[in-house]
Each structure stands twice: as structure tokens, then as C-alpha cells.
Amino acid sequence: MTTAQEIAEGQPGSATVNGRARGLAGITSHTTALDWLRGLGLTGAKEGCAEGECGACSVLVARPAIAATGESGAAQATGGTEWVALNACLLPAAGLDGQEVVTAEGLAGGGSAPERLHPVQRELADRGGSQCGYCTPGFVCSMAAEYYRPGRADGSAEAGDPEAGDPEAGDHEAERGATEQGPNGFDLHALGGNLCRCTGYRPIRDAAYALGTPAAGDPLAERRDRPPPAVPATRVSPAPSGSARSSGSTGGGYLRPGSLAEALEILAEHPEATVLAGSTDLGVEVNLRGARPAYLLAVDRLPELRGLAAAGEQIRLGAALSLTEVERLLARRVPLLDDLFWQFGSRLVRNAATLGGNLGTGSPIGDAPPALLALDASLVLASWRDGGVVERVVDLADYFTGYRTTRREPGELITEVVIPLPLAGLTAFHKIAKRRYDDISSVAVGFALDVHGGEVRRARIGLGGVAATPVRARATEEALTGRPWDDRTVAAAAERLAEEGTPLDDHRASARYRAAMLGESLRKLYAEHPDPALPDGALA
Amino acid sequence: MSRLSERPDGAVVGEALPHESATLHVTGLALYTDDLVARTRDCLHAWPVQAPHAHARVTGLRVEPALNEPGVVRVLTAADVPGVNDAGIKEDEPLFPTEVMFHGHAVCWVLAETLEAARRGAERVEVDYRPLPSVVDLRGAIAADSFQGAQPTVQRGDVGAGLARSTHVFGGEIEFAGQEHFYLETHCSLAHVDEAGQVFVQSSTQHPSETQQIVAHVLGLRSHEVTVQCLRMGGGFGGKEMQPHGLAAIAALGATLTGRPVRLRLNRTQDLTMTGKRHGFHASWRVGFDDDGLLQALEATLTSDGGWSLDLSEPVLARALCHVDNAYWVPDIRLTGRIARTHKTSQTAFRGFGGPQGMLVLEDILGRCAPRLGLDPAELRRRNFYVDGQATPYGQPVRHAERLATAWEQVHATGDLAARQEEVARFNADHPHRKRGLAVTPVKFGISFNLTAFNQAGALVHVYKDGSVLINHGGTEMGQGLHTKMLQVAATTLGVPLDTVRLAPTRTDKVPNTSATAASSGADLNGGAVKDACEQIRGRLTEAAAGALGVPPGEVWIRDGVVGAGGTDRTLTWAELVHAVYFARVQLFAAGYYRTEGLHWDSTAMRGSPFKYFAYGVAAAEVEVDGFTGGYRTRRVDIVHDVGDSLSPLVDLGQIEGGFVQGAGWLTLEDLRWDTGDGEGTGRLATQSASTYKLPSFSEMPEVFNVALLERAHEDGAVYGSKAVGEPPLMLAFSVREALRAAVAAFGPPGTSVDLGCPSTPEAVYWAVVAARSHRPEETPRSGPTGADGTRPDEPPPPDPDAPARLPESELAPHLLGGPRADVGEGR
């Protein structure tokens, strides 16, 4: 096991940036990948917001490619590599130990000679895709990740129909939102986490939709066929107290253990440690609110937390899979989650964020809980006791205990999210927010109803943003169950739903609007599905 | 055709070129001010101590605890200022305040070896505050009679007589929000002092000369001891016209006191909480129409929320008053303006500079009144367009008014509006829960600084012995493509290929006394100056070439780097000619100068011709609204916009599209919220990060977006026949808000008049839908002939600028008065 002493003495190694090894020595546990890269003189990646909202810091990171296999759809590493775009402002530099990073400078081979431009850069430059240019390197990296996404050009993408982009395509907002693709398979959601204040986006979209496929000999394309970088056990020492004048740094240690058992053992010894998965929430605390946790325990690469299996009576999702990975592995088998994925943060956020992290923070406005509550999900919590790993299962409906508090005990880790089968026939996830892409919910509602022979047999409704915790709308569920799926039932239940929760006034929405949206959400579901049949592709 | 506007054959202007820095942008190699830090040794980092009160007296300040923090080098306070403790030009913006004027006001600054140490040092500075009463919302300021600066009036005719002769009179009010610039690059300055005491500040500033001026007065230096350079900005939008100065002065002060480079970069939250924004406005109005829907009279009082200091609030207000009319002839008019003083950031320039706010007032009026006049809103707008021979309320003839009609017809034709209106009606009939709306709105925007003195510019052009050309000019590059255009202007005037010309970063020691790169005038002014310098050089070269070729100077031509003449086959290359001219001892560099002719403006009487010309445009937008949520999408936008003869069509297209989307963001999405409660957090900006202040993203881009430049649009009074393009397209976005209004109306019975909150967020749209659904035609207030006493029973009282607490009531704005929005605790 790793001792505190070992942590204190640990030093991270190096990362490969644009093909060149760069030492990580000197970083602290809260040094972001962005600050580290900029300190190397690679100033292409910019800080625009420091909270993963603008994408100006987007860089490419090599990650293991995983795919669903067999009937069960179990997750398995393909042995290859995938280029994933991440917000460098949220990513701890320590997490880059042993990893490979490519920045906008690296895509161009280190120069600005027009003939050396990467195809993504060429298209953006020629089509007026940059004005002030500050957001541009981030767009370049997000766009390049999508350019290299396996299956993009052959249409086997995880999201999207060929008619995507046609505003007439779907009659339902969620369907239309989820499918915005160019003729080359480019999924516009890949750029949903990048903000541009100058162009109005049209030339950037046109650049993305004009991209072809990587040429033979493209080094990043070829890199995909080789094994991904190994993930070493990484340690960064806590800053000594009364630190040197020259550093002026604070913060605790960073530790990336090699196995779940090791992680749990450390957590048992250091219950004060902050568990770090995608860092999309903690990174914001560190950057914007000066959080300097005593210990960071990185669990995002633990193999035991990165499985997915769909078999028998349940689907089991590894808590440290990124949302993007869950989306790809599920391959549209859980329609309710397909409604969720495109509305959960941005692609840049989903590439890092995990279900374990979203549930672990216990936020009342996390978007996964309302959906998972509707799916009747439960959580597997693991801890280290008496020299071994002990697991228990908690229903998600019982998990949240108060504002950002949960039944997870100190020393416990969320290892899996379990969704029981069969799935309900009529499901939807409605997110109410000011902006369609990448916003925080004013209200989020997950619906899972079984309607047979015109009668509601079973109803599960999860709500976010209307109370100190995500909640089930139990009174509404009751008002629906056993009743005909018709105008009258829905009208009465919608009034009931509008009274669930205790919404607040804030800068996102008024309490009155939030309450109204609950009722409207059910009315909308009914209007769109007056006569529900099982959705295509749903697991029966 | 004027000499200024005439284009030679083979002109490089007019070519559609990418941004001159495009390859640097996409490769990440373009340098912005903060990128220089990685290349600067021994740099110190600055962090502010921000006050947690909207209004308070600083009664004590102890910096010692911060100095004990490892890495902290110095804390800058008022006692350190050798010159004037003021960040502005009106002496109402103390750089280190003793009276905190807004929540987040920086009281002092900590310098440290690292940003982390500076942040921790700032946490340890001890400040004692005695809280004072504060006013943080516009209505509160109006009620408290809290105003600042001038209260101008634009007036023509007799508004009372105009209203009396009107057969339909309506009154109402509107309050609408400001806007955060949210340039992706936050404010940044990097200062150092050389061995001779020369201060060099690299700053992300739209106005280097004024940054220089203020750094000098804070440091007690003269201007020639301070140099300011701006490599480029990661967006400006007006937010870097005034706001960089104090920040640059802090960095420069730190550098002079420590002898080390000082970097001051605001993080996003600091930038949002400390720097000014677009002014929100309140307006109360009465308007009169005749039976044909022709505007007869308009009386309005506009009150802007200026924040804690004047900054640019007066010129912003002046431009607002000069743009209420937009594209419409209003015979009798009286517009009064006031600037409220509130305990908020000092609101400042933002693309459009008051123009959008002024125009919004009348566009909102037309949108609300059209159903009550029984007219299609587009028809109402069209009927009221200016025609040639008419003048604005402040007395400037509306030249080229016919372009409004031309652009209007072109948008109708290319946008297929008639057929699409029918399609929208069919869709709406078939869809009870989703409605579409299609609206078309015009823009007329005056170009030039209202303040006549700013309408001048300089340039410095060098031709080196090898024929290469280097141009300097006073304008700054913030993404708008000014440098691209200046390279094209220089290449055109000199007659050389584009790659012969290079452009140097904007510096105050190259071109002095420059105006802000603002008011859309960067290309007009600097283009005139660059052209002047190049013409001087070209004239000398032409003389020399005439001698060499043995022809009269009038016969010489220089095109694409080749020099020839009529009547001879002999040619020289540009480089050969330059080389020869150098040996003939002829000056190969020149300073150029330009001032806009024909402007005059009386800022007291608010009369004159402040604008060189007007830029015109028309936009049609179609939206779809979800009746359950108020959420919406912009399905299609068609624009025809007048840029004169474009200097650089790809650049202009980018300005039009980008301005439009930014305007749509202001009107529909971006939602600045301050804590207006009376608790401890009063005055705190609630939307102080990118996660709470949402700008348009890909999801707000029009799904179909067609932009055309108006053809045959030569502008005689500007460089190479072009027109300014930076600001006017922003206001084309009114079409989106009016389309939302149309879609909302479709949820109600025919003739529903919709009052729509602004920004028209999904929530605002939802409440408007709720109101429209409950709208019964018989509830519509009647409008009829005016009674013998000139009033009607349902008519609100007229606005009275002398009685700010007694605002006229709106019969159309329930949410402003206690309807759906007033009880939501947002205080707006």
C-alpha cells in the first residue's frame, strides 16, 4: 500500500507534448494542465473562463479506445488509442503523468507556414473561422478530436442520423437537439463547449462540415492504431508548510493509485482525501473559489471503475467512465439517457465528467440524478474493511440526504451505477435552461412511464433544480399510476407535479417559472406521446 | 466620385481575404498580452482586494499581514501614487478609492512572485468598511433622483401638437438589460520600466493613446515617458475603450516601484465584477399614429444605468438619443435622456454605443403597437421609412434613404418572405404547442464619433530600400479585421502585391494622439491616413519613375508591383524603382493624416450633422417557440447589409454575422443579474462567471444564415467607397426579438399585442405566451380619435422628466408593474 510518507516523497514524471517529453517536476496538486502548458511557452491554449465553459483551453489527449463487445455490450479496451479533447483548465497537470498531449501548435508541426497547417486549421483559416483568434486554438483542438473520431466519416457515429441538421427532421425537441451533423458525419456537439464571441459560428460550422478524412500517413490518425499510454501510479507531494518565497504555493498531495483496493485502503487511512474523477466540478472549485484540498485521490483511471455490462436484469455502468464513453458503449440502448447525454455539459465536459463524480458531489442541479432516479437506479458503494473490499448497494432514491450531502460515508467510493431492466416504455429527459447547449438546468425532469393498454402501470419521475437534493416526484407518480393516460389524468398530475419540490428564485430562473416548468413538462410529454409505443431500440 | 473613394484598376481592396493573422490564430502562435508573460523574466503578478459592499467608506487598511505571506512583494495603495489617483479622464474614478462605489471595487492591489501568492496575500489584507446606503437598480435610482452628468434633449417640432393630431395614441414603458462584453481575452496589461525610466506598457486596449495618457497622469509623468503597445486583442467590443486604463496604470505603478515587470490580468470573475458593461435602459414613452399607421409624434424619456461613474455614459446617451428614430420619419419628437448613478460597475462603451438601446425603444413600440393599429408589423415599419429629403430629429439629412427600401425589397425577395409567412401560418395552424414567427426589421446607423475631435487619425508608412513596406497606424486589432483592411488599402494605394506590405503592432510612439478604435470608424479613419501616407510616397515615386521612363508623371502607372507608363513599353519593378529613388535621395517614408470632413455637432443643442453617413441594413428572422417552456430556436435569418463597396468582403461578412449573433445574445439570452435585495450581498453581481452568464453558443446560431452585401452601394465620403461595418449589424438582431414576439402572438387570438421582457429569455417568452393565451380581443384597450380636450380615458399620463418618481403607467407592461415577473424576486 501507499503510505503518507510515500505520497510526501512522490514526484511526477513527464508527459509527451507535441511529441516531446516535458518534465512535470515542480507542479503542485492544483496546477492545471493549462497553466503548466503555458508555462512551457505553449501559449496557444488560453484561459477564457477557468471553469470549462468556453473551451479556449481545449487540448487533445490520447486515451484508450474502448468499445462494446458481444451480446452484453460489455466495455472492453480495443487496444487502440483515441484522441479526446479536454478542457486543460480543469485537468490537473498531475493527471498528465505518462500521457500524450497535442496542442494547436503541435497540430501545425510547430510553425505557422500555410503549407504545414493541419486540415482543421486550413479550413478554419480560409473560411474566416477566426476573428480575434483567442478562442481559435481551442476550437482547433475540439474540431481535430472530432475529425479523428473513429467512425465519424462512415456514419457509425454514436449520435446522429443522416438527416441531422434539418430543422424539420424530428418533431420532438430532444431528437432535434441530439442530432446536428454535417454531411461528413461531423457532430456539431463536438464544438458545443467552445465559445466564440466574434464570428457567430457559421464559418466555424462550415469549416467543420468541409473536413474530409485524415490522409495516409497522418501521424495522429496512425497513433490511433497503437496502444494508449499506460497510466502510472502518480504522486505529487503536498507543498511544505511555510513554502519557499519563490513558489508561494499551497495545496495538498495528489495521488493516483493503481487499483481499487489500493484506492480504498488509502481512503480508509485518509478519509479527508478528496476523490477526483473527471475534475469538471472540483476544477472549478480550485480555479474560481481557491479550493486547495488536503489530498486529491484520482480514481478516474481505475480499471475496476471503468467497466460496463448490460445483461440479464440490469445494466451496470462503471462510475469512472466518462459520459462520452457511457454514451458510446450504451449505443442508444437507453433512450432516456440519450435524451440526457447531449444536454449534459458539453462534449468537452462529457469527455472528462463521470457519473460517479456527478453523483458524488450530490449537487441538486446535476443532470444525471433526475434521469437516473427515473430509471430506478442504484449505486454500488465500496469501502475497505478488515483487509478487504466491502460493497453495499444504495437506491439512488435514498442516496441524497441534504444539500450536497449523501449516504456515502467517508472512506466509501461509488464504483458502479446499476440500472434495472426492463426499461420503461415511455421515457424522456426535459432540461429547462436559458441556453440549449451546455447550460446549467433551471429545472430538469426525467420521466419513465409504463403505459399499457392506455393505462399508466408504473411511473418514475426524477426532478432536479427544485429542492436541496434531486428528488422523486412521488405524489405525481401516484397521481398517474393506475390511471388512464389521457387529458384528464395528465392535467391533474401536471398540477400535482408543479407543486413538487420547493424551487427558489435565482439568476437562472424564478421559482414561479421553475414550478410552472414541472407541470408543463408532463403536459409536453403527453402532447408528444399521446399514444406511446415502445421506442425503437429500447431494451425490452 | 471623390478622390478618397475612387478605386484604381487592380485594387487589392475588394478582394475576399482571410484575416491577416489567420494562420497565427489557428496554430496558436498569435500572441496576446498575457502570452508575453511566459517570455518575460522575473515577472510579478497582481491581484486585487475587492470590496464586499456596494457602497462603503474605507475606514482602515492594513497591508502588513499580506506582506508576511510568502511570495508577496508589495501592496499598492493610494499612498504609492506619485501623480493623480484617478483612472479616468473626468477625475471621478479614483484608482485607489477611499469610498467603495460598487461591490467588487478594488481597494488595493497585491504584487507577488506568483499569482497564487498574490491571491493569498490579497486574502490577508485587512480592510475596515463602514457600509453606506446604496442604490443598485435603475428604478430605485430614478425614484431616489440619483443622476449624474448631462440631461440632453433632442427635439423637433411640437410633440404636443403631433400627439393631438394623432388618431391613435399609445403610451408605455420598457426596461431592458445591459450586456457583458465577454471578450474571450480578459483585461490584461504587462508593464516594465527601462534603464532610462521609460515606461512600456503592453495592454489589451482599444485606445492606446488614452491608456498612455492615464498611465502618465497616475505616474506623474509626461506622455513621452510612456509608451503603450497593443499587439492584438482577444475581442474588445467597446469593453476595452476606457476600462483598460486604470489596470494598465496599476501595472505601470507596480513596475516603477519594484523595478520588475508587472503583469495584471483579470480572471473572468474579476473582469465581470470590476469592469463596465453595456448600459441597461429604462424608457417611458407616448407615441401617436395617424389612421394609415404613419408616425406623427413621439415623446420619450430614456434613462440609462450609468453605474458608479460617468465613464462614457454621456456620449453613449447622446448616441442613444440620436438613434431612437432608427429608420423612421417622426415629424414631431421630443427625446430626453438621463444617466442614473447606481452602485454598480461603471457602464461603458459596447458595440453600438447606445445606438442599440435607442433603437430598441422605437422597435419595441412598433412591435407592440402594430396589432393595435391592425397592421402587419412589417407593413407598419415599411410605411414609416425615411425617404430622401427628410432629416433626422437632430437635423441631419438622411442621405441614401432609398437604400432602406432597396435592402428591404431584396430581403423580401431572396428570403422568399411572402411564401414563408404563409408557411408559418400553416405551421401555426397545425401545431397547438409550437409556433413560428417571422419578422423583418431595418437598421440605419450613423457613422463617426459624435464628438467631432475624435474623427481624425494618423499613419506612418515606411518603404525600405528593398521595396518592402511597413505600415503603422493608430487603430487596434481586436478581431474586426482592421489590419487586414489596412494592408489592402496600402497595397492598393501603392500599387504593390499584398505580400509586399507588412503591418507593425499599434504603438503610441509610432502614431501619437490616436482616437479609440471605436464607433466602427477604424477603417474609415485609419484607412484615410494610411492612404494619405501611401499617396505621398507614391507621388514621389511617380515623379521619379516619370524621369526614368521619360514620360510625364501623369502617364505613370504602378500596378501589382510593376511600374510603367502610357506611350512606352518599358517597365520597372517596384523594387527597382524604390532602389533607384533611394539613391536619388528621395524620402521613402511618410506620415499620413486624415480627418473626416463636413461634420458639425452642437452637443448642448443636440443638433447638427454628427455623422459622415449612415449604414443601412435589413434582416428577416424566423424562430420557433415551444409553448410549454418558452424555449426557442432561430430557424433562418436573411440579411442584406450596406457596407458601401466592401474593402474586404470576407471580413465584412464576419462582422455582419458576428454582430448579428452578439445582438441576438443581448436581446434574447444574456442575462446580467445583480443582487438587488437589501441583504448583505446587495449590489453583488449574481452572474459573475461563464457558467451563470451565458453567451450564444452553437445552439443560438441561425440554422440557415444568408447574408448578402447591398450592391451598388458606393460611399463617396469614405476610403475606397467603403462603409463602416463594426457596429450596425448588431442591431439587425431586433428581427429575432420581433420574430419571437410574432411567434408568441400566434399563441393568442389574431391581433394579440405582445409585451415581451428583454432579454427575451425562455422564461420571458414563456410568460409572454401565458399572457397571449389568456388574451381576449375585447380586453385590448381601444384606440380611437382624440377627444376635444386632447386626451382619452385610456391614455396614460405623459412622461415628465422633471418628475422622475411619477412614471407613466404602461397599459401593456404588466410584468413591469407587478404582473408575472415582478414577484419573482429578481427586482427587475
* Total helical elements of chain B: 19
The helix content of chain B, as a percent range, equals 25-40%
Describe the strand arrangement of the main beta sheet of chain A, using strand numbers.
Answer: 2-1-5-3-4
Strand order of the largest sheet of chain B: 3-5-1-12-9-10-11-20
- The amount of helix of chain A comes to 25-40%
Summarize model confidence as the mean pLDDT of chain A.
Answer: 90
How far do the termini of chain B sit from each other? 52 Å
Tell how many strands the DSSP assignment of chain A holds.
Answer: 20
Please describe what this structure looks like:
The complex is a heterodimer of chains A (540) and B (828). Chain A has 19 helices and 20 strands. Chain A is of the alpha+beta class and 540 residues long. Chain A has 2 domains: 4-223, Roll (Ubiquitin-like (UB roll)), CATH 3.10.20; 304-528, 2-Layer Sandwich (Enolase-like, domain 1). In chain A, the strands form 5 sheets. In chain A, strands 2-1-5-3-4 form a 5-stranded mixed sheet. A 5-stranded antiparallel sheet of chain A has the order 10-11-16-12-13. Chain A has a 4-stranded mixed sheet with strand order 6-7-9-8. In chain A, strand 12 (378-385) and strand 13 form a beta hairpin. Chain A is globular. The two termini of chain A are 45 Å apart. Helix content of chain B is 27%, strand content 22%. Chain B has 19 helices and 29 strands. Among the domains of chain B are: 22-29 and 456-595, Aldehyde oxidase/xanthine dehydrogenase, molybdopterin binding domain (Aldehyde Oxidoreductase, domain 4); 385-448 and 614-674 and 685-775, Aldehyde oxidase/xanthine dehydrogenase, molybdopterin binding domain (Aldehyde Oxidoreductase, domain 4, 2-Layer Sandwich). Mean pLDDT of chain B is 93; it is low at 778-828. In chain B, helix 9 packs parallel to helix 10 (355-373), helix 14 runs parallel beside helix 15 (522-549) and helix 18 runs parallel beside helix 19. The chains are: A alpha+beta (540), B alpha+beta (828). At the A-B interface, helix 3, helix 4, helix 5, helix 7 and helix 19 of A face helix 1, helix 3, helix 17 and helix 19 of B. Chain A: GO terms for molecular function: 2 iron, 2 sulfur cluster binding; FAD binding; metal ion binding; oxidoreductase activity. Chain A: InterPro entries: 2Fe-2S-bd (IPR002888), 2Fe-2S-bd_dom_sf (IPR036884), 2Fe-2S_ferredoxin-like_sf (IPR036010), 2Fe-2S_ferredoxin-type (IPR001041), 2Fe2S_fd_BS (IPR006058), Beta-grasp_dom_sf (IPR012675), CO_DH_flav_C (IPR005107), CO_DH_flav_C_dom_sf (IPR036683). Chain A: Keywords: FAD, Flavoprotein, Iron, Metal-binding, Oxidoreductase.
